[in-house]
Design brief:
five-stranded mixed beta sheet, Alpha-ketoacid dehydrogenase subunit beta, seven-stranded mixed beta sheet, about 35% helix, thiamine pyrophosphate, magnesium ion binding, alpha/beta, oxidoreductase, Rossmann fold, 2 domains, Transketolase-like_Pyr-bd, 14 strands
């Protein structure tokens, strides 16, 4: 039966289910065991599955990912936690030159069933290197799947699907949404991992987002409805690959598109979406595709992050500009 739980708890329950059903699944990372992770996402797992299945690693991201690659070569399915988004870069070389390339390098003979969990994004008042949104850096690398859930149900099921994938998955967890609650049905038959979903239907304009910005776009749609505007909200769910077919279907109906993400607008995932949808929907569009995101600047101190991150007013302003054409 469905149960209401926080997004962080949903990930915990999904990891627990994977550990129970497949002895080759391992959970690894800094403080994931005894502490249960800094956000307590892995709380209780080491106690129940032991230190050989839930492993507290040294503070060495490159070593953590390199070890996971070796374990995958031996038939394991490691789930690696990078403690914060800004800490992933010591492991970037391992991820993009080894993990992402191994399948192609071996002509398909070697599988790389590695999941890299990365809490990402702002909104929690953290210090430097704790609020980054580097998803576009990984989406640009062939051989990696990049996903981000926005709700508890997707957090649970997308983790299951990521662990079952024979290709590496970068699983971005929207840390500001860890405590948001939603229904999780452990008997649900989920749709494809990389398919976008329509979370709210509308007729005047499409809002497309993923991860932490989906909830904001729903709030924008509520505010716009009070002014008689009907906005459709898409949860993209996957950044690589992107489900352009679902976006295209929506835009052909609404004829306008605004893409929202926390990452900087410059060369962000919204740029690729804007380019592709302009190609696909040129004769349907009644306004240019607009993008709302962070600024092309280092992430600011916590007291300024509300000015840096997209908020209700900035997204509504983009909606008004698109509808004014």
């Amino acid at each position: 039966m469905a149960e209401k739980m926080a997004l962080a708890k949903a990930i915990n329950e999904s990891l627990r289910r994977a550990l129970e059903t497949d002895p080759k699944v391992l959970v690894m990372g800094e403080d994931v065991g005894k502490l249960g992770g800094v956000f307590r996402v892995t709380d209780g797992l080491q106690k129940d599955f032991g230190e050989e299945r839930v492993i507290d690693t040294p503070l060495a991201e490159s070593g953590i990912v390199g070890t996971a690659i070796g374990l995958a070569l031996r038939g394991y399915r490691p789930v690696v936690e990078i403690q914060f988004d800004g800490f992933v870069f010591p492991a970037y070389d391992q991820i993009v030159t080894q993990l992402a390339k191994m399948h192609a390098r071996s002509l398909g003979k070697v599988k790389m069933p590695v999941v890299i969990r990365i809490p990402y994004g702002g909104g929690i008042g953290a210090v430097e290197h704790h609020s980054e949104s580097p998803e576009a850096l990984f989406a640009h690398v062939a051989g990696l799947k990049v996903v981000s859930p926005s709700n508890s149900s997707d957090a649970y099921w997308m983790m299951q699907q990521a662990i079952q994938s024979d290709d590496p998955v970068i699983y971005f967890e929207p840390k500001r949404r860890y405590w948001d609650k939603g229904e999780v049905d452990p008997e649900l038959i989920p749709g494809p991992l990389h398919r976008a979903s329509v979370v709210r239907e509308g007729t005047d304009l499409t809002l497309a987002a993923y991860g932490p910005m989906v909830k904001l776009c729903q709030q924008v749609a509520d505010a716009a409805a009070e002014e008689g505007k009907s906005l459709e909200v898409l949860d993209l769910r996957s950044v690589s690959p992107l489900d352009f077919d679902t976006i295209q279907t929506s835009v052909e109906k609404t004829r306008r598109l605004v893409v929202v993400h926390e990452a900087p607008v410059f060369l962000g995932s919204g740029a690729e979406i804007a380019a592709r949808i302009t190609e696909r929907c040129f004769y349907h569009l009644e306004a240019p595709v607009l993008r709302v995101g962070g600024y092309h600047a280092p992430y600011p101190p916590a007291r300024l992050e509300d000015e840096y991150l997209p908020g209700l007013d900035r997204v509504l302003d983009a909606v008004d500009r698109a509808l004014a054409y």
